[in-house]
Amino acid sequence: DMKHHINELMILANKNKAEEMERYLLKMDEFLQNPEEIVASGNIEIDSVLNYLLLSAKENLTTVNTRIMLPEDIKHSFDINVLLGNLLENAIEAAKQTEKKYLGVDISLKKGILFIQIENSYTSDSMLLKNIERKLSLNVQKERIHHGIGLKNVKRIIEAHNGSMEIHKHEDIFCVKAMLYTSKLK
Questions:
Q1: Pairing mode, strands 102-110 and 63-69
Q2: What is the DSSP string of 95-148?
Q3: Are 54 and 36 in contact (CB under 8 A)?
Q4: Rounded distance, CA 180 to CA 160, Å?
Q5: Could you tell me the pTM of the whole model?
Q6: In the chain, fewer beta carbons within 10 Å around the N or the C end?
Q7: d(CA 101, CA 83)
Q8: Nearest of 30, 24, 27 to residue 7 by alpha carbon
């Protein structure tokens, strides 16, 4: 984002457009003062989903760590939003049930591959955790369940885009790592 802003300001400076530079800087300042916005990749659709869920996490959890590096030109993908929405909602809900109340989100796009890592505190006896493990397991058998459709959608999206997903548990941290090829995302 900063490269884009610096480039825009350089263009305005080279054209001796001081008033436009000032307006641009004021807009940047206003944007930076917005405490409600956590993610600003430039993709309104993805930013909206992430900001909504991460604001909810910050209101309900003790610790929320984010590292989200998406380029401005990432194309909107319904699948990315479904995937992020479901994984984050589950992680936030599980973390709310713990004393630690921790959520960590790491999302990046490198060489056409979208990497997502979402980790949260959990309790081993959590019914939500057992539900997530059962439905996200790539070896899960087909079963008739009338709830948890979102988790089935996550699995479907991963498989449809030749992606992969790993689930790890270590002490009181539950971690989902997903990888998708963005050239296949629509």
A1: parallel
A2: HHTSSS-EEEEEEEEETTEEEEEEEEE--TT-HHHHHHHHHH-TTPPP---SS-
A3: no
A4: 9
A5: 0.69
A6: C
A7: 22
A8: 24
